[in-house]
């Protein structure tokens, strides 16, 4: 999706959507989820955060702050994903090649 598409106003009738309840939503085209889908799930309990001082480029901070009041949690989530991806690549057989 490009920036132009993101700046267009939504054509969704949000009042109509807000008025829906579960019984009025047609889910007949949604296949049921197999048990294996739920077996892959895992509980994620985040560790307690640690306060620190960190030098970060001003444009990076500006972008995260523009995401809203939870920008610090979003930055933490981005860093966590980075760590998880790199940890997984260390364990991956392809990374040894």
Uncertain spans, ≥5 residues at pLDDT below 50? none
| Count of extended strands | 0
Instruction: Briefly note the structural class of the backbone.
Output: mainly alpha
Give the overall form: extended
Q: Please tell me the overall pLDDT.
A: 87
Largest beta sheet, briefly? none
- The portion of residues forming beta strands comes to under 5%
* Tally of separate helices: 5
What is the string of SSEs from the N terminus onward? HHHHH
Please state the CA-atom Rg, rounded to the nearest Å.
20 Å
Level of helix content?
40-55%
End-to-end span in angstroms? 34 Å
Which key phrases capture this entry?
97 residues; single chain; mainly alpha; 0% strand
Structural account:
The chain is mostly helical and 97 residues long. The protein has a domain of 48 residues. Helices cover 47% and strands 0% of the residues. The protein contains 5 helices and no strands. The radius of gyration is 20 Å and the shape is extended.
Question: In short, what is this structure?
Answer:
It is built from 5 helices and no strands. The protein is mostly helical and 97 residues long. The chain has a domain at 50-97.
Topology:
Elements: H1 3-7, H2 14-19, H3 35-39, H4 58-66, H5 71-91
């Amino acid at each position: 999706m490009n920036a132009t598409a993101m700046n267009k106003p939504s054509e969704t009738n949000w009042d109509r959507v807000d008025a829906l309840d579960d019984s009025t939503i047609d889910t007949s085209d949604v296949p049921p989820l197999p048990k294996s889908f739920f077996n892959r799930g895992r509980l994620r309990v985040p560790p307690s955060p640690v306060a620190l001082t960190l030098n970060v480029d001003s444009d990076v901070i500006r972008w995260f702050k523009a995401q809203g009041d939870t920008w610090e949690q979003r930055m933490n989530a981005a860093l966590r994903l980075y760590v998880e991806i790199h940890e997984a690549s260390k364990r991956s057989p392809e990374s040894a090649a």
